[in-house]
Design a protein that fits this description.
This protein is α+β, with helices and mostly antiparallel strands. It has 4 helices and 6 strands, in the order E-H-E-E-H-E-E-E-H-H. The chain folds into 2 domains: 94 residues, Alpha-Beta Plaits; 59 residues. The longest helix has 49 residues.
Length: 172
């Protein structure tokens, strides 16, 4: 699910007065273009709308024009807020979260938990493998350095010998 994606032809209309119903909302927005759908989700306890609604236009351009003209306008003494709406799935379906039982997303929750656990396990394995590879690399480097030191002492470096001789001559 992508929570940031907006539906460019569906508008969220907030700040609705109690007396505004879907017919009034339709009448207010129809001058901007053909309307596909109007919804005012109801509060389950009061059976009244929750002071917001959704207007879906057939054309994106009409929705944009309606938003530009209606955002900040007044209806029944209340100032409207009009924005692009997020997909209904994000809000828990057409009727909102209140209409969904608490266990509605249990299956996907368990799947997400299992997926997250699997990701943590894979990350831990990868980290352990990286640490082991680094340890082996450092060990190899140390072994090579030891080999170089042994090589230096056995195969006398002509420059080192010349420096040693020069130092000996100065001190005597």
């Amino acid at each position: 699910m992508n929570g940031g994606q907006v539906q460019k032809n569906t508008l969220y209309v907030g700040g609705l007065a109690e007396e505004v119903d879907e017919k009034i909302l339709h009448a207010a927005f129809v001058p901007f273009g053909d309307i596909k759908d109007v919804k005012t989700p109801l509060d389950q306890a009061t059976q009244k709308h929750r002071s917001f609604g959704f207007v879906t236009f057939l054309e994106r351009e009409d929705a944009a024009a309606a938003m530009d003209n209606m955002d900040g306008s007044e209806m029944y003494g209340r100032v409207l807020t009009v924005n692009y709406a997020f997909p209904e799935k994000i809000k828990g379906g057409e009727q909102g979260w209140a209409a969904q039982p608490i266990w509605a997303d249990a299956d996907t929750w368990f799947e997400r938990q299992q997926h997250e656990e699997e990701m943590r396990r894979l990350e831990a394995e990868q980290k352990a493998a990286m640490q082991e590879a680094e340890r082996i690399h450092l060990q190899k480097m140390a072994t090579e350095r030891e080999g170089e030191k042994e090589d230096d002492s056995s195969a006398a470096d002509p420059m080192a010998m010349a420096e040693a001789e020069a130092l000996n001559q100065k001190s005597t």
